[in-house]
C-alpha cells in the first residue's frame, strides 16, 4: 500500500505485506499447518506493526511486540482428541469434536533499515531488534468455516534453548490460521 499527503501529493510511506500458508495431512485426521508472514513499512511516516495475541504469536499479549519490519513464522499439528461423544440424558446429544494441537511460533522485529537502505539488507545483514518465540499445546472446539473456541498453553522463549517455567494461557474465540 502507498499513502499520499493530500496537501502535497507526496508519498508518506509504503507498506508491504507477504503471507504464505501451507496445509497438509501427513496422517488420517492430522493436519499440519504452517504460516510465514513478513511486513515492512518505509518512508517518512512509516507504519508500525504490532504482534502478539490471538492473531499472531501465542503466549504474548496483544501488541506486546512491534516494529517497522516484522517476520512471523508459525507451525502447528492439529489432531482430534474426542470425537462422537454422546450424552444420553435427557435426550441423545452428540458433543462437537474436541481437537488438540502442538505449535511453535517465532517472531523477529526491526525498527530501522539496513546500511544500504533496503529491507533485504536489514533482514539478512543485521540482527533483529527483538526476537521472541513460543511453543506449546492447545485444546479447541470448532474450526474450519467456523470460529474455534480455543485454549492455548504457550511457553515463551527468546532463543528456543531456554523456556519459561510456567505456560502463559490464553482463551480465545477466533479462526485458526
What does this entry look like structurally?
Helices cover 4% and strands 56% of the residues. Strand 7 (86-87) and strand 8 (93-94) form a beta hairpin. The strands form three sheets. An eight-stranded antiparallel beta sheet has the order 1-2-3-6-9-10-11-12, with helices on one face. It has a two-stranded antiparallel ribbon with strand order 4-5. Strands 7-8 form a two-stranded antiparallel sheet. It has one helix at 119-125, and strands at 2-4, 11-27, 30-42, 49-51, 65-67, 69-82, 86-87, 93-94, 98-110, 130-141, 148-157, 168-174. The chain contains one helix and twelve strands, in the order E-E-E-E-E-E-E-E-E-H-E-E-E. The protein is mostly beta strands.
The class by helix and strand makeup works out as mainly beta
Order of helices and strands: EEEEEEEEEHEEE
Mean pLDDT level: 85
Strand order of the largest sheet: 1-2-3-6-9-10-11-12
Between the first and last Cα atoms, what is the distance in angstroms? Answer: 23 Å
Q: Which stretches are poorly predicted, pLDDT < 50 over at least 5 residues?
A: 114-124
Find the count of extended strands (DSSP E, 2+ residues).
Answer: 12
The backbone outline, from C-alpha atoms, is elongated
What's the helix and strand layout?
Blueprint: E1 2-4, E2 11-27, E3 30-42, E4 49-51, E5 65-67, E6 69-82, E7 86-87, E8 93-94, E9 98-110, H1 119-125, E10 130-141, E11 148-157, E12 168-174
Antiparallel strand pairs: 1-2, 2-3, 3-6, 4-5, 6-9, 7-8, 9-10, 10-11, 11-12
Amino acid at each position: 500500500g502507498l499513502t499520499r499527503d493530500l496537501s502535497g501529493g507526496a508519498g508518506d510511506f509504503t507498506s508491504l505485506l507477504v503471507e504464505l500458508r501451507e496445509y497438509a495431512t501427513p496422517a488420517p485426521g492430522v493436519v499440519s499447518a504452517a504460516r510465514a508472514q513478513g511486513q515492512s513499512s518505509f518512508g517518512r511516516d512509516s507504519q508500525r506493526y504490532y504482534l502478539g495475541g490471538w492473531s499472531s504469536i501465542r503466549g504474548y499479549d496483544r501488541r506486546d511486540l512491534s516494529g517497522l519490519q516484522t517476520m512471523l513464522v508459525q507451525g502447528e499439528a492439529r489432531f482430534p482428541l474426542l470425537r462422537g461423544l454422546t450424552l444420553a440424558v435427557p435426550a441423545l446429544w452428540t458433543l462437537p469434536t474436541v481437537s488438540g494441537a502442538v505449535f511453535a511460533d517465532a517472531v523477529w522485529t526491526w525498527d530501522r533499515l539496513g546500511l544500504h537502505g533496503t529491507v533485504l539488507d536489514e533482514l539478512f545483514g543485521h540482527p533483529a531488534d527483538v526476537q521472541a518465540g513460543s511453543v506449546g499445546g492447545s485444546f479447541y472446539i470448532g474450526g474450519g468455516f467456523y470460529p474455534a473456541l480455543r485454549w492455548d498453553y504457550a511457553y515463551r522463549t527468546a532463543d528456543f534453548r531456554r523456556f519459561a517455567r510456567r505456560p502463559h494461557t490464553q482463551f480465545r474465540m477466533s479462526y485458526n490460521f
